[in-house]
Fold this protein.
Amino acid sequence: MSEISQKQGRPRISSPIQAGRSRAASGVTLVELVVSTLVLAVASVGALTYQFHAVKRAKAAQSEITATQLAQLILEDWKSNGGSEFYDPIGAKMGLQSAGAEKYYKTTLNQFPMRIQLQHSDVSNDEAAGVTLREIQVTVSWRRDYRDQNPDAADPAFTATTYVRRDQSGG
């Protein structure tokens, strides 16, 4: 469509340069493409980092749950044996193996290598009544990197403790 200029009386026709600009304005420039690619890359890296940490925390939580369940199982079995100082969880067929030291065991549960240590101490003894109160304790520890090696002091551990009356438990 042409417009007639009132001053000159001639038809006014858009030049090809002006027509090209209006077509280019509707497209995407290289700068816009690079910027949008950069924004997408940053968002993707952020999402992958979040997913990596979420998986790592889920694995840590699962190892803590496994350690808690194992400690509770051993503690209940030991308690049913009266908290005896001769208690050996290997005989209970829970999949434990000796780890070298006395009252120190190892196992792998849910693909988590664990170390278990048993401790006991008599906390109260009433000779007249024939009652001895014994504290029994199970500590389950594991390496932060989940290797099948003895944990360090900085590695996580879970300790479960209970008390047993030796006169009532048959121990």
About this structure: The chain has one domain: 14-169. Helices lie at 16-25, 30-80, 166-169. The two ends are 107 Å apart (CA to CA).
